Amino acid sequence: MIILDRVTKKYPNGIVAVNNTSLRIEQGEFVYIIGPSGSGKSTLMKLLNREEKLSMGHIQVGKYRVEKIKDKDVPYLRRYVGVVFQDFKLLPNLTVYENVAFALEVTGQANKDIQTRVNQVLSMVDLASKAKQYPKSLSGGEQQRVAIARAIVNRPAILIADEPTGNLDPVTARGIFQLLEKINQSGTTVIMGTHNNQLVDEFKHRVIRIENGVVLSDEYKGDYRG
């Protein structure tokens, strides 16, 4: 469960990216965050795993009270909240397998357990046959699926995807939407920032519209244009 209570994020340059916003997202929901560029979508999502610190208000993410979390506990929050980026952020000198395994290695898990889990998630994203390849040899859609595998390998309760189809062609983008739905159906909360109006209208879920840091609308099974 995620609770935002009168949350504001003001940057040092005076820009208010999130303005007195309150939201509640239940475990297992699939939520789109939409709005024009600069509306505050990305900042809102970054607040959830403390990539950005809020200026005022209260955020609860599962058992974590985000504004009060100690620095030493931030890595645990970020295992609870997986993140997928538009530009993949894969390590170019590591194979597909190694990119995904790295997220487990830093937690100190045994090699046998890592191998089992990495193979599971690579099969889930249909990339088991690409395990030994390097990112540069993959298509954009394949790289994004590696990024998703890396984000879910720690079994996060929440998956944040910030414009995950922004650099992809329409057919590949549809495949990413379908994969995120599959992950959501396993019980993971999915929060997706997107401009992809066609697929938002096709894959119906809760739609939260933000503009100038303010929530303008919040509809279950809404559409992109409201």
Helix-strand pattern: EEEHEEHEHHHEHEHEE
Largest sheet: 6 strands, mixed
**Helix vs. strand class:** alpha/beta
Shape: globular
Radius of gyration: 17 Å
What is the number of helical segments per DSSP (H or I, 4+ residues)? 7
Strand order within the widest beta sheet: 6-7-8-3-9-10
Uncertain segments are none
- What is the helix content? 25-40%
**What is the residue-averaged pLDDT?**
95
Question: In short, what is this structure?
Answer:
By secondary structure, the protein is of the alpha/beta class.
Spell out the blueprint of helices and strands:
Layout: E1 2-10, E2 16-25, E3 30-34, H1 41-48, E4 56-61, E5 64-65, H2 74-80, E6 81-84, H3 96-105, H4 111-124, H5 140-152, E7 158-162, H6 170-185, E8 189-193, H7 197-202, E9 206-211, E10 214-219
Parallel strand pairs: 3-8, 3-9, 6-7, 7-8
Antiparallel strand pairs: 1-2, 1-4, 4-5, 9-10
Helix pairs in contact: 3-4, 3-5, 4-5, 5-6
Question: What does it look like?
Answer:
The chain is α/β, with parallel strands linked by helices and 226 residues long. Helices cover 33% and strands 26% of the residues. It has seven helices and ten strands. A six-stranded mixed sheet has the order 6-7-8-3-9-10, sandwiched between helices. Strands 2-1-4-5 form a four-stranded antiparallel sheet, with helices on one face. Strand 9 (206-211) and strand 10 (214-219) form a beta hairpin. Helix 4 packs across helix 5. The longest helix has 16 residues, at 170-185. The two termini are 25 Å apart.
